[in-house]
Amino acid sequence: MTIPDPSKISFTCSECQAGQLRYKRITYYTWLGNEMITIPDFPAWVCDVCGRREYDQQALNRMNLLLNTQTKRRTPSLKQSSKNNRGGKSISNR
Ligand SMILES: [Zn+2]
User: Fold this and answer.
1) Which CATH number is correct for 6-73, 3.10.20.860, 2.60.40.150, 3.40.50.300, 3.40.1280.10?
2) Cα(53) to centroid of ligand 1, in Å?
3) Distance 78 CA to ligand 1 centre (A)
4) Cα of 50 to ligand 1 centre, how many Å?
5) Distance from the alpha carbon of residue 48 to the mean position of ligand 1, in angstroms
């Protein structure tokens, strides 16, 4: 299995429909509470016309996992989407 070289892939920009999103390594900025975090060498897709950025979803997920494990130590109560699917009991409506 060979992973295709991402620098050779480009997408049509969904924002301007004219440019091409090209693979670039950028510095990603995000806020964690009051702290700004910079992640250098972050994979992103940047439009060469309007400058729209799309981030690599896998890299984002990985980063969020990393940030979450770090924030859990500091702030134990993170906002959680409260979907009422507690417990594994299946209720059958027959
Ligand atoms: Zn664009």
Assistant:
1) 3.10.20.860
2) 9
3) 34
4) 4
5) 7
**SS3 (DSSP) at 88:** coil
Residue type, 91: I
Report how far ligand 1's centroid is from the alpha carbon of 21 (Å): 7
Q: What is the pLDDT of residues 2-57, one digit of tens each?
A: 777 877 888 899 999 999 999 999 999 988 889 998 999 999 999 999 999 998 88
Token code pair at residue 56: 């690599």
